[in-house]
Amino acid sequence: xxxxxxxxxxxxxxxxxxxxxxxxxxxxxxxxxxxxxxxxxxxxxxxxxxxxxxxxxxxxxxxxxxxxxxxxxxxxxxxxxxxxxxxxxxxxxxxxxxxxxxxxxxxxxxxxxxxxxxxxxxxxxxxxxxxxxxxxxxxxxxxxxxxxxxxxxxxxxxxxxxxxxxxxxxxxxxxxxxxxxxxxxxxxxxxxxxxxxxxxxxxxxxxxxxxxxxxxxxxxxxxxxxxxxxxxxxxxxx
Length: 238
Ligand SMILES: Nc1nc2c(ncn2[C@@H]2O[C@H](COP(=O)(O)OP(=O)(O)OP(=O)(O)O)[C@@H](O)[C@H]2O)c(=O)[nH]1
Ligand SMILES: [Mg+2]
Prior knowledge:
Structural class: alpha/beta
Number of strands: 7
Shape: globular
Keywords: Cell cycle, Cell division, GTP-binding, Magnesium, Metal-binding, Nucleotide-binding, Septation
Family: Belongs to the TRAFAC class TrmE-Era-EngA-EngB-Septin-like GTPase superfamily. EngB GTPase family.
Largest sheet: 7 strands, mixed
Pfam families: MMR_HSR1
CATH architecture: 3-Layer(aba) Sandwich
InterPro entries: G_ENGB_dom, GTP-bd, GTP-bd_ribosome_bio_YsxC, P-loop_NTPase
Number of helices: 6
CATH class: Alpha Beta
CATH superfamily: P-loop containing nucleotide triphosphate hydrolases
CATH topology: Rossmann fold
Function: Necessary for normal cell division and for the maintenance of normal septation.
Bound molecules: guanosine-5'-triphosphate, magnesium ion
Helix content: 25-40%
């Protein structure tokens, strides 16, 4: 059941489950304007040494295969099919770079780590590619670490978070597919993850609950990403 559209008029409905405690004061309008400037696929990278010289600030989307990374990029940009998605885990096999708002931000769709419907050697090589990227990319500003709301943290999520911690790369935990679970499960998972992360790393924002299918949390995530974008080259939109 969908509720009426919310007061912000951003297409979300009042029964969306987006919360982002610890990140109050988000500028939703800045996020909307940034993403209204369009997004284009730049290229796919199969090996870390093919990455372009670091220039534009990068925001990466990391997570297990099938967690919804590519779908989230499509929901953020409002372009179904910009990033290729599939029911079959292992769809994204390269590091795909997307130019947002003509050079203001680069969105990075990563292959999934962990389980995928592909030979183990292939999955291992994607995982190495992703972990090398997360460890050593100077232009990387923030990693959205996606966790499936149905499954919670798994071993390789913890491994990825450890790499980010060691490399001092900021991250935001994003729960995906919030439309597939009830509010109680979302509240429990949020509490569980927040407690685990804060025990290890001190003050951190709570996970952001999203649904690419129902647009939950998308306006909030756009606003978070706008914080990292380069200023607009000509004129002003803020
Ligand atoms: N119900 C629901 N399904 C979703 C949502 N986001 C993604 N999916 C579905 O989950 C499946 C995987 O989505 P992808 O975006 O391809 O996942 P991915 O993390 O990019 O997967 P890989 O590229 O294989 O690592 C697809 O069938 C999507 O339609 C969501 O918010 N709600
Ligand atoms: Mg993908």
